[in-house]
Design brief:
Number of strands: 0
Structural class: mainly alpha
Distance between the termini: 72 Å
Order of helices and strands: HHHHHH
Largest sheet: none
Helix content: over 70%
């Protein structure tokens, strides 16, 4: 191979390599979600999940809830163990329901008997979800 042809081939490959660098660099930086954004979303999701778990655990550990669970012969320990196994959606929904129930009870919209039935239903739902996931 002549020296001139070899130099042309080397120049062509060098040119192709140099031209492909910006494309590679752009594609490496062009993510749909940045690592920082992903991390922030995970932290927010984890904090929301922990807040929901805390709300639900506080609700079931309240005196009226304890009395209702005892009356229904439901195992509080089983309910407490089931709470963290719920999905994020299930936790969010249960946390909203417990907030609404506490607000209604505090406002006098629910009687003790109604509160007892609601607590029993919620605890039973939590246990059933745990059983279904097993």
């Amino acid at each position: 191979m002549s020296l001139k042809l070899r130099n042309v081939i080397v120049c062509a490959f060098t040119l192709l390599f140099v031209l492909s660098l910006p494309c590679q660099m752009l594609s490496a930086q062009d993510h749909v979600v940045s690592t920082r954004g992903l991390h922030q979303a995970l932290v927010k999701s984890s904090a929301t999940r922990q807040t929901d778990i805390s709300k639900i655990e506080r609700f079931f550990s309240s005196q009226p809830a304890q009395a209702a669970l005892k009356k229904a012969r439901l195992n509080m320990k089983q309910v407490q163990q089931a709470i963290p196994t719920l999905s994020d959606q299930e936790l969010a929904q249960l946390a909203r329901q417990t907030d609404r129930i506490q607000n209604d009870f505090a406002a006098g919209a629910l009687s003790n008997e109604q509160l007892t039935y609601i607590i029993i239903a919620l605890a039973t739902a939590v246990v059933v979800i745990l059983i279904l996931k097993a």
